[in-house]
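Before the break, one more example. Copy the sequence into your notebook; we will annotate it together after we see the structure.
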Amino acid sequence: MRYVTLLFACALGTVNAFMSVSSPRLRDAHMLHMVAGRVTSLKPAASPLLNSGKAIARSGELLIDLTTTLDLYGGGLSSAGATIRNAGDHIAQAAASCRFKTGTELVCDEIRESATCLLEASQEHFKKALTEAVADKDVTLETGIGAVIPILENAGTSLEAAGAGILQRASIEDVGYKISECGEYLGMFAGAILNLAKDEEEAQIASQRMQFASEQMIEAGNELSGNQKVPEKKTGKGWIKG
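Here is what the structure looks like once it is written out:
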């Protein structure tokens, strides 16, 4: 009996040691399994979040195409477009997992990965693109990129807060507010994209797709927070169908 007790104590110590040295993401996954029952109502956000992710990814692809038109392919702006495309892919994957109660861990993980991509695009690639624009004495591009950086950084920060909220057992309403907040920043980003090269078709369409992504992201957040617009009450005979 004493021998069995000793073996059990050793095994328990091994498990504790593993948890103490494992990566933060593994520890996060362990915590999420413990609280998964608290965040099982993400399904209402699935459809608009999927639309948003696809539109973000498409906007990123168009930014890459824009760099070819501007003869800037391979620079910071091109890398930023690729990273934004990846951010959209992660959002779309999160949306797919929203439909399943057992997918909460994946939703959290994919949302945070998307946030990391947005932050990387703003803090690294767009800053590199800004340096390149200054070196090329391209004032229009320099001004446009300078406006993009803080907006996209705020979008990434809000999205990271949403993912962290799921992990930390925040209310589903609070998670929704952060997702909507990210959507608001994406709307600002859409306008900033257009200012990069207003006369170029790629910039125009990229801006349009990002604007749609913004609207869908806000809708996804509203589905979770319950912040829905109340339909206007029709007066007179306006309620009659047909």
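Residues 104-135 form the longest helix (32 residues). The chain has one domain: 25-35+42-225. Try to locate both features in your own notes.
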